[in-house]
Structure formats: C-alpha cells, structure tokens
Amino acid sequence: MIPNFSMEQLRQAAISFPMFGENFSICPSASFTLFGKEIYLYGVIIALGFVLAIVYCVKVVCPRFGLASDDMYDMLLAAVPLGIIGARLYYCLTYKNALGINPYLEDPVSMLYIWNGGLAIYGGVIGGVIGIALVSKLKKIRFGAMLDVAAFAVLIGQTVGRWGNFFNREAFGWTENINTVFCRMGLTVPGEETFYVHPTFLYESLWNLIGFIGLHVFSKRVRRRFDGQVAVMYFAWYGFGRMLIEGLRTDSLWLIPDKIRISQLLAAITFVAALVVLLLACRKKDRVLWAEKKAQLAAAQAAESSAETVQEAEISGESVEAAEEDETEQKPEPEQELEDGQ
After folding, report:
1. For 264, how many CA atoms within 13 A lie in the half-sphere containing its CB?
2. CB within 10 Å: which end of the chain, N or C, has fewer?
3. Which position has the higher pLDDT, 85 or 306?
C-alpha cells in the first residue's frame, strides 16, 4: 500500500522516473523566497496557465467565435473569481483525511490557504459557468459562444496547472502491479525507501493537451453546428479521460467506500450527458452561429454606411451643379455688358 506520509514529508521527497534511467532523480522545491516572502510554485504555475490562456484566447479564439477582446476580459473578471471560489469550496467541503475527518470544517480559516493546494475542477466549472452566464446576460452575447471560448481557456489552464501537483507531490495513483508500469514515478522521502506511483497529474495534463490540439484543429477547419459545440465536446473529452484516470488515484473522495468515487461518478455522468447533448444537437439543422451573425451585422452596417456616403456625395454633387447653373444664369452676356458700357 501507499505509505502514509504527511504533505510536508512528501514535498521533500526526491522524484525519479525509471524510464529515464535508474540514476535519474530530481528534488524540486515546492516554493522559493522572493523579497522575504515564500512563493509556492503551485500558485506560480496556475498563474502561468492563466496568462497563456488569456493570450491564446484573445489572439486566436475570440476572433474565430465572434467575441471582442473586451468581451474576453469581462468574462474573465466574472468567471475566474467565481471559478476559484467554487473550486476551493468544492474541495474543502468534500475533503476527508485518512481518519475520515474534514480538517477544513474544524478550521474554516484554512480554506483561504489556497497556495497549499486543493482545487476541484467540478466546483471551478460550476463557479465559472455562473460567471459566464452573468456576463452573457449583461452584454447580450450568446451564452454558447462564450462557453466555447472558455473551454479553450480551461484546457490550457488544466494542461499547465496540473504541473503544480508535480511540485507539490500530489494527485498520484497506485496499483498492485505498479512496478510493471513503464512510466511510473518514484518518490523517496528522506530516510525512507522509494515507493512508486502513477503520475496521474501527468496523464491528465497530456490528456488535456491532446484535447486542446484536437479542438483547436476542429474549430479552425470544421464549421460548428451550433454555438456551445466546442464546450460540449470538451466536457465529453474531459469526462471520459477523468473517468479513467480517477480510478488510479489514491486521494479520491468516496461516495461509497472502496466502491464508488465521487469524481469518477461525476466524470462518467459528464461524459454521457455531453455525448447525448452532442448527438441530439447535431441531428438538428445547422443554426446561424454568433460569429456569423456578428459578421452579417457588420456587413449590413458597412453597406448602410457606404450607401449613406454615396447618397451624401450625390446630394453634394447635385448642390454643386445647381450652384453652377445659378451662377451661369446670373452672369450677363458680353453684348449686354457692352451696351451698358456705351
């Protein structure tokens, strides 16, 4: 079985990957000091994923889905805080240690110590979707289009953010035949023997990276059938992968001890629900996408503006011609001028 070490002991463990050689071992610190303050790499990596998601979505995704950069920033201002709150609350309210005790309920202030790790994707999704729905309502932007953009941001955040688990030495898995697993990861706590685990954080990071690449290519080369299709495809992809990976983890929360894991059940429900929505929606005829509607409105406005410009030019031209005619009529004939002179 997995040795029962504290979080502090695990954070000091050396990490090895036998597939890179027997002598390959590293011991990265979980934090560093900057200007006298301890900075945790878990938070730094999440921030890095956040920045990369913003840059990619603003530069690539928003124009493709009919959103302006300001729409993206407004969405982030609402979805990110609510997403973090939701992810942290979900984790803290459902977590139990080896003794079956929830330490966060005994010490609620510790819920604020987010830099120590402990975020749950399902709570984050719920909070984020609420934030996106609010912005969609206020700005009168189609909800599905905003969800599509958010799906790319979440995939990037998950792909990068999972590496925070690497530095914290958490979110790993174990099986009886772990020594036969090619990509197993070794953890060596000071003064203890090495034990091997499944690097499930790595599995999930790679799974999300593949999903991101697939959705990027799909959205670029294939016309979507409806707004929200990319988001539904994300839920199906992530749900299926998480359902498989969660079965390997040692830190799962159980609905029924040793039988049903909460996250695995939710992942299965997410996968099936997304698949059903996708199949039903794709059976209907294609709808006008938000990006196409915006393009049509922009073209109509441009045509109207052009027509007004031409009309103004015609009116201006007619005025000039009328003025010239008046000037010609008022100008005396040469003979008349001569007679007047005599």
Report:
1. 18
2. C
3. 85
